[in-house]
């Protein structure tokens, strides 16, 4: 009989996770895009630059530092800054198309921009003119906002334990965040924190502020290079010039929630576009026809042709709803009210349903149509499904159906929050 030996040696505690230093601010001003057409052209040029190395970055989890610098310096991070403050103020249909173009090349890179663009929109909605001039001015120079919004320990996603205390000309923020996409590589970090009345503000802190620690601990199987990990806040000082009353965007009808949502729609459509692109290339050039098809080429298999037709149709439908939603958002931004905002929310909900479904369908059907050799690690095609499955979890599609049904059946407008 063997005798078990107990290890009674004292255990050494795991070392505390280490924060990652922030990146330097840009040394020269970012380009300022002049109109919608230029925004699309710049996005297409950027996509061509980054697409070739996207799979390697995913496989080896290489953060897109140089790619992100190129992205924000291109002017695409200021495209929703209002014209009155020197920005191009493109249509939200154009903004969504830009996000999709970049996402089709690298969805992690594209996702890093989503909260920045949403915060820019929120500043337009809730900040006074002086704060808008200050913060939009920083955005136009190439400053990137990150994100320290969501928390692990609260009962619901809209509940926040992170808070701040008023210290006169500044506030001190304390709390802990997760899913902090963009914070690691940002220059400024908007933190959702509540005041003593429970109202949520964006406290926009310097990335290297004392007490602000960003930990690179994102372990999700998809969107691997978003660095959507932990932010620890220990009495972080934020000047009141950078304290944005985000709660005002949801006290009355505004387009803020719809804007956050349409950006997510565009990321998912980009993932679907990339999966379909790789399906077509592989079926044309590498797949073998099925033994019973009687065809010499896999691309002539009638069932494959039918399946590709379905994917193409559903992506085009998702893109059409995305464009429609973008125009509805434009109308709500121009004239916010219960009716215009509800129309934007409903249009975005429709787009979100289809973008989720086509991203998941296209990234799974790829393997069915391309065949067994498409699962080889050298192709890394599973990244499309991993990215789709991860990113589409931001908010449940079943609740989008509920929003549409409750409005159609009972005339109930969607709720006002960042997920609607």
From TrEMBL:
Domain (Acyl-CoA dehydrogenase C-terminal) ranges: 263-395
InterPro entries associated with the record: Acyl-CoA_DH_C (IPR013107), Acyl-CoA_Oxase/DH_mid-dom_sf (IPR046373), AcylCo_DH-like_C (IPR036250), AcylCoA_DH/ox_N (IPR013786), AcylCoA_DH/ox_N_sf (IPR037069), AcylCoA_DH/oxidase_NM_dom_sf (IPR009100), S04_starv_induced_SfnB (IPR023922)
Keyword line: Oxidoreductase, Plasmid
Domain Acyl-CoA dehydrogenase/oxidase N-terminal: 41-138
Membrane spanning residue stretches: none
GO BP terms, alphabetized: L-leucine catabolic process
N-terminal signal peptide: none
Domain of life: Bacteria
Disordered, as annotated region: 1-28
Record's protein name: SfnB family sulfur acquisition oxidoreductase
Molecular-function GO terms, alphabetical: 3-methylbutanoyl-CoA dehydrogenase activity; flavin adenine dinucleotide binding
Organism: Azospirillum humicireducens
